[in-house]
Amino acid sequence: MVKDSEAGGYPTALGASSRESITLLGQDLAADVMGKVGFGELAFWLATQRRPTPGQTRVFEAVLAALADHGFTPTAIVTRLTYLSAPDSVQGALAAGLLGGGSRFLGVTEDCGRFLHEVIVDLGSDAPSDDAGWDAVAISALTQRKASGAFVPGLGHHVHKDGDPRTPRLFEIAAEEDLVGPHLALFAAIGRTHARVLGKTLPLNGAGTCGAALADLGLPLELLRGFALLARTAGLIGQLAEELRDPVANDIFLSVDLNNRVVPPNPAAPGGAHG
After folding, report:
1. Tens digits of residue pLDDT in 215-225
2. Could you tell me the pTM of the whole model?
3. Could you give all domains of the chain from N- to C-terminal order, each with its CATH number?
């Protein structure tokens, strides 16, 4: 059998076109995918090259719904303001919003998934079988995190200080589909035990729960932020659609521009004086 590397060319199991047809993931796009495969199912399939079960699709799409929009976040505001500045560039406005998906917004999904996975990998074959065991693992992980001065991703929310409503619903859906794996189990244990280690009680936020759920689905950790951005793209399109109907971007711009306060230069500010 000739290896792909010996045969030359660029092998792909994704989209390919001939004069007569288009294939995608080994399926005829027009006959087998269009009108038969939902977008969430297809996105999962594209990322893993395995078709998800109905339960996996339900959990995955619940995550996408949870991350699609969360109001006037920085990503939404910058999308609206970029469109105000360049209405001829919808792609620029969307890109501006997506570029803001970082450690404080959206990126928590990946950060939490990676953190949980690192702890689970270190367990090896000694993964707990009950809540008490997971609580002990969580306390150990939190203690190490605190000692290193590192932030615990997935804890706290600037609005939902008494509990993120997305979190229990995601746990519920995963449980209904029998898809609560080690990442969600560990994250739940962190929710139960973190106050003992950190000295304060914080909610498990929805973005972190999404990361745990995606990791339990076996999706690539390196792409978890990508799924958050996929979800937020739909939300940003909604933000632009609302901006077209009921514009607020100019008011946001003017609220800053007309209320600036002139102060003397500060050479000690970041980027100012150099030693």
Report:
1. 999 999 999 99
2. 0.88
3. 108-221 (1.10.230.10)
